[in-house]
Amino acid sequence: MPTNNLADRLKKARESAGLTIGDAASRLGFANYQTLSNIEKGEREVKASELALFAKTYFCNLSTLLMDDDQPLAAINLLWRKAPSGERKKEIEAYIKNRFEQYHFLERLLEIDKESNARLITVTPSDIRTNNQIDGLASKIGNLLNLGSRPALSLQKVMEQILQIKILFIELSDFGSAAATVHPELGAAIVVNNEEAPWRINFTLAHELFHIITWDTFSPAEMEADEQLFTDIEKKADRFASALLLTEAEVRQELTKKIMDQQLPLSDIVDVAREFGVSTSAILYRMANLRLIPWDKANELSKNDELTMIDRRLKKDSAIDVPVSERFISLSAKCLRKGLISRGKFAEIFSIDRADIDEFLEYRGLSEKEDVSVEIVAA
């Protein structure tokens, strides 16, 4: 496939992934970088067997490399809470972009309406000036989504199934934290570090939901250009997350049950945090929001060695499975079942061997084949 167009696309894909020509050549298995240099100059043919490896290494689809795109996809602007640095940022964002496109590809195959329901209401800056207004917004969203008395327990499923927000669990380690984006074609997505504890993930989802809701109100470009604005909006997002996950009436009710002689044991605070699916720090700061304890006391307790050790121990005990997007897996399985993607494509999406597909599906209670249909009799 010796076309200059392909050579140009391969070079652009490598640069978008944040890889030097030396790094890319090494990952592709070439003995030296000159081989890749010759390919990018159009001086060396690309074998068909090599293209899949290029796509995997550069975090892009084969179609992106093979075909010119007269109408390129609009840029994906990620709003990072803490962005990765340097070239690592490009590599991580290239992987996120590829995953985002894969998710949308599955939706298109299944003819799922691409119109996202993520932004439930219109929010203006004047709507979230005060803490009371933010609390009111959280209450309104909680009611609209029917999150119930323990929102953290159903938040991810509701965000995926009802709002059609694409939740992308990525291994970020120390390279970055969470991010959010809204794209005109691909919809809304939230990036979550899959190494976080479950209760931290719950808070992250609620925090990033605030950014999705207010996406047209505060653009990433504005926030990146104004550090003070970014700090202020992050505080509002934290407040929103706290109010959404820890509804005032429910929190007061649970704490009241455990207070004796105006005292609340630390172990009971931990129990309440776990019951609501949040961290101990989150419940402490919510108690300060509700004026149950002073802010300086919340700060002091959040750094308490005993509470910190309890959280760490619980995180270790709960880290059994890496968190995943159930909807993404379900859509992939449905496409495989209906013959819309091959077993090879399914294995590629999840980076598993074809021989492991059946076990992968069985573990999640899914099937590769269509079941017998049941005739529905009209009432």
Report on this model:
By secondary structure, the protein is mainly α. The protein has three domains: 1-72, lambda repressor-like DNA-binding domains (434 Repressor (Amino-terminal Domain)), CATH 1.10.260.40; 76-245 and 304-379, Arc Repressor Mutant, subunit A; 248-303, no CATH class. It is 56% helix and 5% strand. Helix 6 crosses helix 17 (326-337), helix 9 (198-213) packs across helix 11 (227-245) and helix 14 runs antiparallel to helix 15. The chain is globular, with a radius of gyration of 24 Å.
How would you summarize this macromolecular structure in one to three sentences?
The protein is mainly alpha-helical and 379 residues long. The chain has 19 helices and four strands.
Secondary structure tally: strands: 4
Any idea how many domains?
Answer: 3
Class based on secondary structure composition and strand pairing? mainly alpha
Radius of gyration: 24 Å
Secondary-structure element series: HHHHHEHHHEEEHHHHHHHHHHH
Q: What's the architecture of the largest domain, going by CATH?
A: Orthogonal Bundle
In which order are the strands of the major sheet placed?
1-3-4-2
State the helicity in percent bands: 55-70%
CATH class call of the largest domain: Mainly Alpha
Low-confidence stretches: none
CATH T-level fold name of the largest domain: Arc Repressor Mutant, subunit A
End-to-end separation in angstroms reads 59 Å
The largest sheet is: 4 strands, mixed
